[in-house]
Write a structure and sequence with these properties.
The structure is a single chain. With about 190 residues, the protein is mainly alpha-helical. It contains 5 helices and 4 strands. It has a domain at about 10-105. Helix 1 packs antiparallel against helix 2.
Length: about 190
């Protein structure tokens, strides 16, 4: 937010300058001035102006105190929340079956869980089976029976020759190896 000079702090600075100018240009504090159509003395005018500065300083101080208190609250909040939750759990543990005691602490008793009907149990079982089928999930026994079938092949690719080195000589098309280990050339067919 840019300070455009129209804020209350800027006005307080200008009012301070007005007070300094009034003290300098009107050295006689009892001198009468007409301000806003009413007659007043320089001292009364300066006191009015000073009250604006005093109020502004009080507001700024109060805001600083409020910011400090909010910061202190924020820093203490996680610890206090944890303690409050732990205290509520303790109260529920001690008085969980006594609704009147819980009401003294402003707590409502937990609702009793309604038992499922036979139809609800059947629907829940069908949904669980459908979910397991859709997700392909298996139990520990079914998972232990699944083993991977891995066939590995080793593929070696020759590295490209470095620049400036001669490439290895390729076998000549005339000499081809024979199954017995000999070499046949174009003349031996």
């Amino acid at each position: 937010m840019a300070n455009n000079g129209n804020g209350k702090n800027s006005r307080a600075t200008r009012v301070g300058q007005l007070i300094a100018g009034a003290r300098k240009r009107f050295p006689n504090g009892k001198q009468q001035l007409i301000v806003g159509g009413a007659s007043t003395t320089v001292d009364d005018a300066v006191n009015e102006l000073q009250s604006f500065i005093d109020h502004r300083a009080a507001v700024v101080a109060a805001q600083a105190i409020a910011r400090a208190k909010v910061s202190a609250e924020r820093s203490a909040l996680p610890t206090l929340d944890a303690f409050i939750n732990a205290f509520v759990q303790t109260v529920r543990f001690l008085f969980g079956t006594q609704p009147d005691a819980l009401a003294d602490f402003g707590l409502a008793p937990h609702k009793a869980r309604a038992p499922m009907t036979a139809v609800q149990k059947a629907v829940a079982t069908a949904r669980r089976r459908a979910t397991r089928t859709a997700r392909g999930t298996k139990g520990p026994k079914a998972r232990s029976e699944i083993h991977g079938d891995v066939t590995a092949q080793l593929v070696v690719t020759p590295a490209a020759p470095a620049p400036g080195t001669a490439a290895p000589a390729a076998p000549s098309p005339e000499a081809t190896p024979t199954p017995s280990g000999g070499v046949t050339g174009p003349a031996q067919k």
